[in-house]
């Protein structure tokens, strides 16, 4: 049988394993869940051991679904949620739960990093980005301040997908795209920033070498082969953070290409042939998974997460009675139908900031809100407001990119928002740009598999892999009158948030102080 390439994406809610054949066609996909922990307000953690069990289950499931043997897999690529912190001791044992990308406990540490760096402008010159609570660096400083007994045992700090590679290969390593999201990486030079580490008094030896994404940096051990069903010595490439991997999976690997991915978070991503200036720090300016290329993107922390919240609140009884994932997903389909038939009367605004925010507002204290609610509104109006609020937030990221000099010929759609015809058209109307759906919506896992195919020499480079595997399906054109309507709503939403923001800040500070005292 022809060789297959395996992509593994360790996401926030679960792990996806995907097999791609030599022609770039998806042969099988499986998803397994893993739990999250929320010990205090604003905290978000997971157990790395749960990721490993989820990976093993997903890999075996993909092999069964494709009816192939592990020996048919020629290479493995990894993707995963970015910014998380896995702390290992000298024996490479996990010291505590991993702190995730949407964890908001590190406000004080972000301030400390800016101060130690010599100010925000100096920090941006060092690592191209500002200090945000989701990044890995402030998490390490938080551990030093609040759990010194754990900090004293730290010998290695890994990102989530890199912990999985260690379990697969016993090799410590990372890649330039994921390392860019630690706030400890010199993005322009594509190497660790030892200058910033020195100012933060962190040991550079804690952070593993960062390779280019398609580079093979390990092979499967005997133990990992037994656990996953794969073959011993199967090559494993460096892989990429989920956003860069998703860009590969959607073909955003050339200038002018932009994607909008709606998962738990909401990300607008643009390719660039050179580092992108990030003077305001609202966007993320990182290395791309494409060697010698860079990228810029914004990340809303609760995009699809807001829709999930609406499902849990508005359809609790039906959700509880659902017998399987298909019935869970059917609720989303019905929600879209209700939104599509809602009148949109009496402008109803939703702020999708349920877990703080990173972009378009770099505020960990931001909160969600429904504004303009009246007796005339029904459930469909609320669902529509949630979908519009998410999409307006995504558009604000596009506006920030245009301000930095990047232009979008079209927007490629991925994630949950790409599966609904109505939501695709809504995005075209809000963005004011043609939006393109893809035949495959596998995103990060597909990108990881393509990186593996490049790494073992099946494709000469990443753009060639994308040309073979990524196919467009349909283009949605904006309707001018609706675009103008959403421009008005966007201005109203921005003014509403500006009015509420001081209240959110005071409440966040109150909860933060209470959490520290508990």
Please explain how this structure is put together.
The chain is an alpha+beta fold and 518 residues long. It is 42% helix and 20% strand. The strands form 8 sheets. The chain has a 7-stranded mixed beta sheet with strand order 18-19-17-16-22-23-24, sandwiched between helices. It has a 5-stranded mixed beta sheet with strand order 3-2-1-5-15, with helices on both faces. Strands 4-7 form a two-stranded antiparallel sheet. Helix 13 crosses helix 14 (379-403) and helix 16 (444-455) crosses helix 17. The longest helix has 38 residues, at 480-517.
Record keyword descriptors for this entry:
single chain; Nucleotidyltransferase, domain 5; five-stranded mixed beta sheet; alpha+beta; seven-stranded mixed beta sheet; 20% strand; 518 residues; 42% helix
Summarize the structure.
The protein has 18 helices and 24 strands. It has about 525 residues and is α+β, with helices and mostly antiparallel strands.
Strand content range? 15-25%
Mean pLDDT: 91
Give the end-to-end Cα distance, rounded to a whole number of Å: 59 Å
CATH architecture of the largest domain: 2-Layer Sandwich
Helix segment count?
18
CATH topology of the largest domain: Nucleotidyltransferase, domain 5
Helical proportion?
40-55%
Outline the low-pLDDT stretches.
Answer: none
Order of strands, main sheet, comes to 18-19-17-16-22-23-24
Q: Give the radius of gyration.
A: 22 Å
Question: Major β-sheet, in short?
Answer: 7 strands, mixed
The tally of structural domains comes to: 2
Which CATH class of the largest domain?
A: Alpha Beta
* DSSP E strands, number: 24
